[in-house]
Amino acid sequence: MIIESIVPQSAGSLSVAVLAFLMLIVQITFFFRKPRSGWYIWGAATSFASMIYAIGIFLEYNTTAGSLNRFAGLLEFTALLLLVHCFYGFTLTYLGMPQRRYHLWAGCFHVFVLIILWSTNLIVSDSFAVRNFLWLARPFIEPEVGALGPAFEAYIMLAAIGVIILWLKAKSLTTRQRVLYLSGIIFWYALGIHDGLASLGVPTVQYLMEYGFLVFAIIVDWGVFHNYIDISAEDKYRVITEFANDAIMVIQDGKTIFGNPACSRLIGHPVTDTAVEELIKIIVPEDRKKILKHKDNLLSVNFSDSLQVRIKRDDSEEKNVEIRLSSISYRNKPAAMAVIRDITERIRNENTYRETEEKLIRLKKMESLGLLAGGVAHDLNNVLAGIVSYPDILLMTMPEDSKLRKPIETMQQSGLKAAAIVQDLLTVARGVAINKEPFKLNDLISEYLKSPEYKKLLQYHPQVTVKEELDPELLNIKGSTDHVRKVLMNLISNAAEAIEGKGTVVVATMNRYIDKPLSGCNDISIGEYAVLVIEDSGRGISPDDINRIFEPFYTKKIMGRSGTGLGLTVVWNIMQDHDGCINVTSGKEGTRFELYFPITREKAADKVSVPLGKLYGNGETVLVIDDVQSQREISCGMLETLHYKALSVSGGEEAVEYLKEHTVDLLLLDMIMDPGINGRETYARIKKIHPQQKAIIFSGFAETEQVKETQRLGAGRYIKKPLILEELGLAIKEELRK
């Protein structure tokens, strides 16, 4: 009763069932896409009947006498009846003949036959026959035909002959159509005769009529499709192009004779014979000459070409399109076809890719420059240490009325300016140590606009007016005031120098919520930003230069005027270090820089100058660990000035050996020492000897991962060279209080 093993020869029946099912799905899909045609639904019904018949044969191959085998026989006879009805449905629809009466009477009759078939054993009996087909692994068992079985089979054969007569008498068919369908029916008949002989006991191979059904179903589908698309040349192209996203138009004899729906959407109204001229009108004037050069080709044949243009309708945004032109045959006459594809998104992606590539090249260039600048800056910081730090010590012990005070202060200021240039190099190298804290951007701007540097700038540019438009509700930002002040100074200086004669520089701030990428800030995160705007009424920046203004040493300033070519590079790097971005727009009316700083809800701390007396120590011992002798001497001198007992060693290994026998209250630890172990390794070894050892880190390089690891080991604040007396004193006090 159940299937215990599968006969290999039954695989053909199963394959037919699967193929028929796939054809059914395809035909139903096409039917719903083309609801005006009934041919596909009858083709689908034919495939369904073939599938049922094949399933019945498969079950008979693989079951013994019993209810399941009889059920398979009922499926076969049901499929035969459905096939007859489907054949007539397809034929009458295809030939355009009346079919309502047939479906009414034949439908009622077929339902009546099905009731008899499934409720009695008059057509399919309860007894079983065994067929010994050639080359079959085991006997084929099927239900015997009942009393009305021969009449049923005769009806099927006569109905099939009726279908053949209809196809022979049809006058609307071409020879190809007639031969095609009659060949399919005759092939099915031949296989049916074979199966009839097999059922009479004639030695032969297994049942084959299911393959005839499948072949006929394939022929029906093939014929329907080709007949449908051959109704007219216009329908042929419409079937292919109706759902295409590309606009397609066919030009013949100087006129547009076909356009798909996408073409109508492109030009904004239904396609007419003047669609080519209408397309030319919506091409932007700068690109129109490209298409005009091809117009003669567009209206002729024997060519193939492509071009890219921009189009702009009054009711839509500008788009980039690609037009491909080629010669074709349409309605058996030469014609030209234009395929127009919207490539706006592709162009946008290509531009994004190019910008990303340029950014990577710029970053690589910055990295290479950083290797050079970092090394030079480190050496310069050590040299400048004496110029910046010793004046602090001298001024502390010098009377206020001393004649040497002014020259020493001038020397110190010169050293600080040189140190600022070194900081620019380190900023370009992304190797500067940045201490970030919450502050008010408006206060920083107001402070700069009162500074001597700003007043000197106005003296150089007396005809330039600077306007302030600061938002009083501006939110705080977190960063380095020294670096943001440098950004402000560079941009205002550049803005003033860009103005020839009278002009205005606007310094504005505002709060802004960003929820989508900006033109110059594709990587900006969603959130709140404090925006600094520097806008001038100068000559503007040329399109060729605007993409290179942030490159190191790229400058268009006249020789002899201020500028090293690092100003905007420093600005760009500082904004990167502050997780911000810059949006630059420029034209004949001037240039506008918009700088976006992420806001913070932390409150800005008020800076109070610490009296020198509060920086003094109580004779605590501080060990200076630095590989540069001059730096050790300067550091020790500053420590002694601050009333600390200063000791020094020239490297990490020496410090470890010293501390094996001695103790100190604090380490002043340089991070980069050559040769020998670095600051992190030095501190790690010392911690094994004195687990509670306190330390302060100092260096001229950035706060690297090595610095952070050292701080995680227990080290305190990180301060940068050259050392400032007040900053050093505060850092020591803070660490010793822990």
Set out the fold topology:
Layout: H1 11-33, H2 39-62, H3 67-94, H4 100-119, E1 124-131, E2 140-145, H5 149-169, H6 175-199, H7 209-229, H8 233-241, E3 247-252, E4 255-259, H9 261-267, H10 275-282, H11 285-298, E5 304-311, E6 319-330, E7 333-342, H12 344-397, H13 405-428, E8 437-439, H14 441-448, H15 452-460, E9 464-469, E10 477-479, H16 481-497, E11 503-514, E12 527-536, H17 543-546, H18 567-577, E13 581-587, E14 590-598, E15 621-625, H19 629-641, E16 645-649, H20 652-661, E17 666-670, H21 679-689, E18 695-699, H22 705-713, E19 718-720, H23 725-736
Parallel strand pairs: 9-11, 15-16, 15-17, 17-18, 18-19
Antiparallel strand pairs: 1-2, 3-4, 3-7, 5-6, 6-7, 8-10, 11-12, 12-14, 13-14
* Largest sheet report: 5 strands, antiparallel
How many strand elements?
19
Query: How much β-strand is present in the residues?
Result: 15-25%
Q: What's the pLDDT, averaged over the residues? A: 80
CATH topology of the largest domain: Rhopdopsin 7-helix transmembrane proteins
* Helix fraction by DSSP (H/I, runs of at least 4): 40-55%
Describe this structure in words.
The strands form 5 sheets. This protein has a 5-stranded antiparallel beta sheet with strand order 4-3-7-6-5, sandwiched between helices. The chain has a 5-stranded mixed beta sheet with strand order 9-11-12-14-13. The chain has a 5-stranded parallel beta sheet with strand order 16-15-17-18-19. By secondary structure, the protein is an alpha/beta fold. It has 23 helices and 19 strands. The protein starts with 10 loop residues before the first helix and ends with a helix. Helix content is 52%, strand content 17%. The chain folds into 5 domains: 8-231, Rhopdopsin 7-helix transmembrane proteins, CATH 1.20.1070; 234-342, PAS domain (Beta-Lactamase, 2-Layer Sandwich), CATH 3.30.450.20; 352-413, no CATH class; 434-598, Heat Shock Protein 90; 612-736, Response regulator (Rossmann fold), CATH 3.40.50. α6 (175-199) runs antiparallel to α7. A hairpin with a 2-residue loop joins β6 and β7 (333-342). The mean pLDDT is 80.
